[in-house]
């Protein structure tokens, strides 16, 4: 049985582009997974490959068209933002922004956070005065 699995494994490797060993490592990183069936590993690899292909094709067709014959990060992030099917990817494919704009956003969040914390402290002091 082991030899049949080994032969099957060899032919499966040619049917998928993604490395099965890396996919196995990712699958095993889940605490719920104890063992991985060869067929499950192959099907996960193939499904992942087809998904990436679909994402790339969709993003290229619906891209901004800023670069001819090229798929850009902007095309992918636009797809994640605009297409409901791919919105779950928005966190890992965010729109690019300038570092200066990001730093301003962080500064604003920090200022807003400090204001809230100051308000909480003022309320606590008032409560102590009443007691």
From TrEMBL:
GO molecular function, one term: DNA binding
Domain Transcription factor CBF/NF-Y/archaeal histone intervals: 17-78
SUPFAM superfamilies reported for this sequence: Histone-fold
Keyword Transferase attributed: yes
Composition-biased stretches (Acidic residues): 115-131
Region (Disordered): 109-131
Record carries keyword Hydrolase: no
GO cellular component: CHRAC
InterPro entries: CBFA_NFYB_domain, Histone-fold, Transcr_DNA_Rep_Reg
Keyword tags: Acetylation, Coiled coil, DNA-binding, Nucleotidyltransferase, Nucleus, Phosphoprotein, Transferase
Subcellular location: Nucleus
GO biological process, one term: chromatin remodeling
Assembly mode: Heterodimer with POLE3; binds to DNA. Component of the CHRAC ISWI chromatin remodeling complex at least composed of SMARCA5/SNF2H, BAZ1A/ACF1, CHRAC1 and POLE3; the complex preferentially binds DNA through the CHRAC1-POLE3 heterodimer and possesses ATP-dependent nucleosome-remodeling activity. Within the complex, the heterodimer with POLE3 interacts with SMARCA5/SNF2H; the interaction is direct and enhances nucleosome sliding activity by the SMARCA5/SNF2H and BAZ1A/ACF1 interaction. Within the complex, the heterodimer with POLE3 interacts with BAZ1A/ACF1; the interactions are direct.
Physiological role: Forms a complex with DNA polymerase epsilon subunit POLE3 and binds naked DNA, which is then incorporated into chromatin, aided by the nucleosome remodeling activity of ISWI/SNF2H and ACF1. Does not enhance nucleosome sliding activity of the ACF-5 ISWI chromatin remodeling complex.
Protein name: Chromatin accessibility complex protein 1
Organism: Rhodinocichla rosea
Gene assigned in the entry: Chrac1
């Amino acid at each position: 049985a082991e030899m049949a699995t080994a032969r099957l494994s060899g032919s499966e490797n040619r049917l998928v582009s993604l490395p099965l060993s890396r996919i196995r490592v990712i699958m095993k990183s889940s605490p719920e997974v104890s063992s991985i069936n060869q067929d499950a590993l192959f099907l996960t690899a193939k499904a992942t490959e087809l998904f990436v292909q679909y994402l790339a094709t969709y993003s290229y067709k619906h891209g901004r068209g800023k670069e001819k014959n090229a798929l850009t990060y902007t095309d992918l992030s636009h797809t994640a933002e605009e297409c409901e099917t791919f919105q779950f990817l928005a966190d890992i494919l965010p729109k690019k922004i300038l570092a200066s704009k990001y730093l301003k956003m962080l500064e604003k969040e920090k200022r807003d956070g400090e204001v809230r914390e100051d308000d909480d402290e003022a309320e606590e002091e008032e409560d102590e005065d009443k007691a």
